[in-house]
Amino acid sequence: MATKRSVGALKEPDLKGKKVFVRVDLNVPLDDNFNITDDTRIRAAVPTIKYLMGHGAKVILSSHLMKLIQLLKRGLQGRPKGVTPKYSLKPLVPRLSELLGVEVKMVNDCIGDEVEKMVAALPDGSVLLLENVRFYKEEEKNDPEFAKKLASLADLYVNDAFGTAHRAHASTEGVAKYLKPSVAGFLMQKELDYLVGAVSNPKRPFAAIVGGSKVSSKISVIESLLEKVDILLLGGGMIFTFYKAQGHSVGSSLVEEDKLDLATSLLEKAKFKGVSLMLPSDVVIADKFAADANSKTVPASGIPDGWMGLDIGPDSIKAFGEALDTTKTVIWNGPMGVFEFDKFAAGTEAVAKKLADLSGKGVTTIIGGGDSVAAVEKVGLAEKMSHISTGGGASLELLEGKPLPGVLALNDA
Ligand SMILES: Nc1ncnc2c1ncn2[C@@H]1O[C@H](COP(=O)(O)OP(=O)(O)O)[C@@H](O)[C@H]1O
Ligand SMILES: O=C(OP(=O)(O)O)[C@H](O)COP(=O)(O)O
């Protein structure tokens, strides 16, 4: 998609003393003690913030955060409902301050009197972090009144949240209507520049690997992916909907009941299109969602009651590896299993190692998504990949050829 003017076009006279609303994606994984387990997204947000600070702007940062519940609640899409301390952005302040080299101030809300007071008191070149914007249900509804309230805090808008650019939310899309100019940040620009080029005319065979837990949003992307790729490997929480649709028992694995018909039609479409769609033939199952669960490997088509699939098995790792050996471009979003628990990390780690190997042989390897990147960082292989993207769903939707609402909304004025 066409990219618009980026923040780099704004100079000192445009920025000095101006209040800039910057949407960033600081949705990083946290452990049970609120320690950041992968800070890629925070580091990626730094260049734009530093640029704005350096030009004397008053930087107002906005983000959502929801990774912790994904781990705790087995991949159910955990949207914060109301103010929930668990999803506060507070644990991010020390790392953000360290990376920016200034003390980042934080306010306990994202709209309202207290926020307005803090914004009014901001010195030039300083940074204020707003509380989790998804504490308001109006955010995901893209409520215009809420967007106006966010916009009223600032003079101009920068969207640097590539990872959330596929969501038409108030802070990613709505707010751009009320602030001029509204421009892309450096990260947004960099991601678009790389990904648009890499996926518009990929070297073939072209493979996508899709896993993770956001089944409902990602399964819908698969239909379009079948138009683009030669090979599609599915893993993670994605696969059980396909198995259930085929009449297999899936125990208590993650399933999207309302996507069963879609799964069946996708399998048929893949056949019709001549795309090699591979599901794992074996899975590692657990008797509970916990690091110390009992586990065993079983054929993917027969998961006993009371057990849940949390990783792909060794036969699948081998088959996926052989399929990937034939490729020239690979895009991967979504871990193959619950890699946060050592017992269920083998599939994800094997795919990461395979892609690192292939990168060394000239294959273009693109890894996208907060948790997928965290998994690749965990095994120390991020440097080996062609591109590490801060967006998983966003990079898949870009690959689909869909305009991203967070980019479309930006204006050049
Ligand atoms: N079989 C599975 N069942 C439940 N959760 C899973 C399964 N496989 C992977 N996951 C979880 O998926 C999460 C990542 O999903 P997702 O957000 O879709 O990926 P990304 O952040 O890379 O886009 C991880 O926290 C991982 O534990
Ligand atoms: O983690 C994110 O996406 P990803 O899991 O596709 O990488 C982004 O922060 C978007 O989050 P959302 O999928 O809750 O809108």
TrEMBL record:
Entry keyword annotation includes Ion transport: no
Catalysed conversion reaction: (2R)-3-phosphoglycerate + ATP = (2R)-3-phospho-glyceroyl phosphate + ADP
| This enzyme's EC code(s) | 2.7.2.3
**What is this enzyme's class at the first EC digit?**
transferase
Q: Which cofactor does it need?
A: Mg(2+)
Binding residues for (2R)-3-phosphoglycerate: R41, R134, R167
- Tell me which SUPFAM superfamilies the record gives: Phosphoglycerate kinase (SSF53748)
Summarize where substrate binds, as residue positions. 25-27, 64-79
A GO cellular component term found in this entry reads: cytosol
Q: What Gene Ontology molecular-function terms does this entry list?
A: ADP binding; ATP binding; phosphoglycerate kinase activity
Q: Which UniProt keywords apply?
A: ATP-binding, Kinase, Magnesium, Nucleotide-binding, Transferase
One of its GO biological process terms is: gluconeogenesis
Q: Which residues bind ATP?
A: K218, E340, G369, G370, D371, S372
| A Pfam family per the record | PGK
| Superkingdom assignment | Eukaryota
Keyword ATP-binding among UniProt keywords: yes
Quaternary assembly = Monomer.
Output the PANTHER family linked to this UniProt entry.
Answer: PHOSPHOGLYCERATE KINASE, PHOSPHOGLYCERATE KINASE 3, CYTOSOLIC
Q: Which HAMAP family match?
A: Phosphoglyc_kinase
Q: So what family is this one in?
A: Belongs to the phosphoglycerate kinase family.
The name of this protein is Phosphoglycerate kinase
Please name the source species: Rhododendron simsii (Sims's rhododendron)
